Amino acid sequence: MAAIDPQSLASSLRRLQTTQHTDISTAVEEAVRACAALFQVSGAGLMIADEMSNLHYIAASDGAGRILEHVQSETGTGPCVEAFVRNDVVAADDLGDDPRWPAITPTLTRHGIRAVLGCPLRLGGVPVGTLDVYLGEPHRWEEAERAALASYSDVIESALSTAMTAHQAGVLAGQLQYALDYRVVIERAVGYLMASHGVDAVTAFDVLRRASRDQRRKVAEVARELLDTGAIEVRRR
Predict the structure, then answer these.
(1) Inter-residue long-range contacts of 198-201, CB under 8 Å, 24+ positions, other chains counted
(2) Half-sphere exposure of 23 (CA within 13 A, CB side)
(3) How far apart are CA 147 and CA 119, in angstroms?
């Protein structure tokens, strides 16, 4: 991956910030394609969390990028899921030699995905999804690359905020608003599970997510009940 030229980054960000769209899907698709081109990566993608806190595919620059997003959405694990839960950039330099996500690594490497950089996508400081880029070969992600991806996520945040204000995002707007309204209670429930069960944030979040899916209830409802009763019911895998 070539070094990112600061002037090219600034120019690309300005173009995205000043582009006007009547439809949020067009804005997001353009931002993802521009991200892949600027970073000179194999592909890029964007996921948004639904009311069950499952991350779902919104846009991808190519087929492998869609697979990267769908696999993580189905399993609830992966670098982008961790970026969303931890509200921080998460890097995988070589999935072929990374033990963190055994449920998805064989599928991703089989489709030519080796290095992944996931960045939380926020609205008002609240994580509502992720922006990710990937490469078909191992790559050590530098701090400058992480910072540049974070800058891109800020631009997409601006586009989503504008779309919500203008009521252009439809169902997506509802998902984003739900994430904003209930993130605090979900984070409190994650913290409770971490303290009471001695697990990390990603594991605690997955417990909530699976309980939400099993009970066919919104994750915020499950989180609030956990905080009220101290109990949660999750089927064993």
Answers:
(1) 201/85, 201/86
(2) 4
(3) 10
Q: How far apart (Å, rounded) are the C-alpha atoms in residues 156 and 5?
A: 20
Per residue in 96-132, pLDDT (tens digit) is 999 999 999 999 999 999 999 999 998 878 888 999 9
**pLDDT digit string, tens, across residues 151-205:** 888 877 877 776 666 555 566 666 777 777 788 888 899 999 999 999 999 899 9
Q: How far is CA 99 from the centre of its chain?
A: 20
Work out the angle between the directed axes of helices 171-197 and 143-165 (0-180°, nearest 10).
130
Q: Answer whether 0.90 is exceeded by the pTM.
A: no
Burial state string for 57-78 with b = 16 or more CB within 10 A and e = fewer than 16:
bbbbbbebbbbbbbbbbeebbb
Domains and CATH numbers, the chain: 6-165 (3.30.450.40), 171-229 (1.10.10.10)
Q: Which residues of 119-134 are buried (b: 16+ CB within 10 A; e: fewer)?
A: bbbbbeebbbbbbbbb
DSSP alpha helix (H) spans, the chain: 6-18, 24-39, 63-75, 79-86, 105-110, 143-165, 171-197, 201-215, 219-229
Scan for tokens 């696999």, then name that residue.
71
